[in-house]
Write a structure and sequence with these properties.
Blueprint (H helix, E strand, L loop, with lengths): L1 E2 L1 H10 L12 H13 L1 E2 L9 E2 L5 E2 L18 H8 L3 H7 L7
Antiparallel strand pairs: 1-2, 3-4
Length: about 100
């Protein structure tokens, strides 16, 4: 297993954590750091099954999908982010991730 240190460093800098001692990280920042490390980790010869939409409009997140697509896990991104990556229709987006009045 190999971590893409450049991507991890970019994330750390984007979140202004570069000069912060690790002992001063909040629990949330530590969890986010682990999440980010997992997301940029490349596992040799491992292929993830992509999420997809069935003909009837059902969203399917396969068990062997990339961890970022598992929205129910602490390391998962939102359904909206996954659907945006999939470039789904407005109808599907509205079904699974309707915009709130605050969006």
């Amino acid at each position: 297993m190999e971590i893409d240190l450049n991507k991890l460093a970019e994330w750390i800098m984007e979140n202004n954590l570069m000069d912060k001692p690790l002992k001063d990280f909040t629990k949330e920042e530590i969890l986010q750091l682990f999440e980010q490390a997992e997301l940029v980790t490349y596992v040799a010869n491992q292929a993830y099954s992509p999420p997809y939409i069935k003909e009837n409009g059902t969203l399917v997140i396969p068990a062997d999908a990339h961890p970022k697509h598992k929205y129910w896990e602490p390391t998962g991104q939102s359904i909206r982010q996954t659907l945006q990556e999939m470039e789904v229709s407005d109808e599907i987006m509205e079904r699974y991730a309707p915009k709130s009045d605050n969006d």
